[in-house]
Amino acid sequence: QQQVKQSPQSLIVQKGGISIINCAYENTAFDYFPWYQQFPGKGPALLIAIRPDVSEKKEGRFTISFNKSAKQFSLHIMDSQPGDSATYFCAASPAGRRALTFGSGTRLQVQP
Amino acid sequence: ETGVTQSPTHLIKTRGQQVTLRCSSQSGHNTVSWYQQALGQGPQFIFQYYREEENGRGNFPPRFSGLQFPNYSSELNVNALELDDSALYLCASSLKTDSGPHYGYTFGSGTRLTVV
């Protein structure tokens, strides 16, 4: 059972544009929602994370929007740069955070 | 501060063989988790070790086993390798406290296992 659904599978954005990646979850026990960035040949690196008690969190050019009632959250990358080209994963975990459940990933390509 | 290091980086094994993958956790971290990432997919949780004991397990058969050592390093062992075990195996370390949840998973670059 896929508990975190991520879309789109791939995304092409022009330099300076906004990249938007969406995720939906099913398990209401999830209470921690991180986004990871992965470059080829590397492990995932934490970008930004949110708890369900807030609806938005911003760090630099990266913003998470969270809709608890809809069980959806999204990542917005403002002023997208070619260096942002990577695969992005949403994830979720329940209280205690023993295990992260990852989405299937979005391959982002930012064209110069 | 050192990050998470995994060895080897690449490995080719024959179906039916056994394999051991190694992970050194980030300095200051006491918990190690292992994930399997198939090509084009998100990582899937295998298990986690805390205080040298398994502290949670995903939907993986018993032929996947692990160890955590007193210095918080860890091994992932897979017996009776199958072709579908071909994947990137990721180790992630974190700091767990008794009083609360843990934070800051740091992933290594992984071991690419190919089973032929």
Number of helices of chain A: 0
What is the strand content of chain B? over 45%
Mean pLDDT of chain B: 92
Shape of chain B: globular
> Structural class of the helix and strand makeup of chain B?
mainly beta
Count the beta strands of chain A.
Answer: 11
Description:
The complex is a heterodimer of chains A (112) and B (116). Chain A has strands at 4-7, 10-14, 19-25, 30-38, 45-50, 56-59, 62-67, 72-77, 86-94, 101-102, 106-111. By secondary structure, chain A is mainly β. In chain A, the strands form two sheets. In chain A, strands 2, 4, 5, 9, 10 and 11 form a six-stranded mixed β-sheet that branches. A five-stranded antiparallel β-sheet of chain A has the order 1-3-8-7-6, with no helix packed on it. Chain B is mainly beta. In chain B, strands 2, 4, 5, 6, 9, 10 and 11 form a seven-stranded mixed β-sheet that branches. A four-stranded antiparallel β-sheet of chain B has the order 1-3-8-7, with no helix packed on it. The chains are: A mainly beta (112), B mainly beta (116). The A-B interface holds A 4, 6, 32, 34, 36, 41-46, 89, 91, 95-105 and B 4, 33, 35, 40-45, 48, 55-56, 58, 90, 92, 94, 101-110.
Helices and strands in order:
The complex is a heterodimer of chains A (112) and B (116).
Chain A lengths: L3 E4 L2 E5 L4 E7 L4 E9 L6 E6 L5 E4 L2 E6 L4 E6 L8 E9 L6 E2 L3 E6 L1
Parallel strand pairs in A: 2-11
Antiparallel strand pairs in A: 1-3, 3-8, 4-5, 4-9, 6-7, 7-8, 9-10, 9-11
Chain B lengths: L4 E3 L2 E4 L5 E6 L6 E7 L6 E7 L2 E5 L6 E5 L5 E5 L8 E11 L2 E8 L3 E5 L1
Structural descriptors:
heterodimer, A: 112 residues, mainly beta, 6-stranded mixed β-sheet, 5-stranded antiparallel β-sheet, B: 116 residues, 4-stranded antiparallel β-sheet, 0% helix, globular
